[in-house]
Structures are given as C-alpha cells and as structure tokens.
Amino acid sequence: MKYLRTRMATDWSRKKSLKIYILDALFGFVPRANPGYEKKIHLLAEWLVEFDEEGLPWREIGLDMNGHPVLAGPNDECYGFWLDTNMRFDDFDGETVTKGEFERLWLLSGVSVSS
Predict the structure, then answer these.
(1) pLDDT of 104 over the 90 cut
(2) What distance in Å separates the CA atoms of residue 7 and residue 24, rounded to the nearest whole number?
(3) Could you identify which of 14, 76, 82, 97 might form a hypothetical disulfide with 42, taking C-beta atoms 3.0 to 4.6 angstroms apart as the criterion?
(4) Does some domain include residue 35?
(5) What's the pLDDT at 18?
(6) What is the value of pTM for the model shown?
C-alpha cells in the first residue's frame, strides 16, 4: 500500500450557483455518488489517500485546514470521491505519508463501514 497527501480537488465553493440549483432540481431523482460529502466538501484543505497494490485509491480522508478529518470513505453512505475515479497513484500530485499517520487519522474520522 502507498499513502499520499494531496491538495488536489480542495477548491470547492460553499455556496451553490444558480446553475447548480437548477441542475439539482432537474436531476434530483438521480442518486448521488457521495451524498454524505456534499455538506462538508467545501471544508477540505487536503486529502490523504491510500492506494492498493495496483495503484488505485482504496481509502480516503478529507482534512480541514487544521488537519482534522471531516470526510472519510468508503463508508456506509459514500463510496468515496477518489475511489470513484479512474485515477492511479501516478496521476496524483502530493507528498507521501506513513501508514501510521493515515491509520491514526482514519481512526479519528470515526468512519463506519458495514461488513
């Protein structure tokens, strides 16, 4: 497994544009990929991502500007932001982190996953 810290995809706006409200109204019946992330994703300052042996995202933790977990997946409600892409380890910009640091923040996230 590899572990990476990245600031990619952390520029989410807190406010929705009129265009987004209209699209939400038109396509509200379509299931959302990560509904539990929507109200917190604007808080993200960085991500920690765990990659499997094939270089695919396996688990993710979204951290706020103080380094506290605000999102983590996959969980019972959300598949995960990076897990839902076709990106691999080499597609990411960032710095490596230790397994211990990732696991410490994973536990702090309180993520719940059914077996």
Answers:
(1) yes
(2) 27
(3) 14
(4) yes
(5) 60
(6) 0.79
Could you list the residue range(s) of the whole structural domain that residue 98 is in? Answer: 2-109
pLDDT given for residue 21 in this prediction: 52
Closest CA relative to residue 107, chosen from 74, 76, 69, 75: 69
Residue 41 lies in a domain: yes
Phi-psi region of 82 (alpha: psi -120 to 50; beta: other; left: phi over 0): alpha
In a domain, 49, yes or no: yes
- Answer yes or no: is pLDDT of 80 > 80: yes
CA distance 54 to 20: 35
Domain membership of residue 115 (yes or no) is no
Return d(Cα 111, Cα 59) in angstroms, integer.
Answer: 11
Query: pLDDT band at residue 115, thresholds of 50, 70 and 90?
Result: very low
Cis ω before 35 (30° cut-off from 0): no
Number of domains in the chain: 1
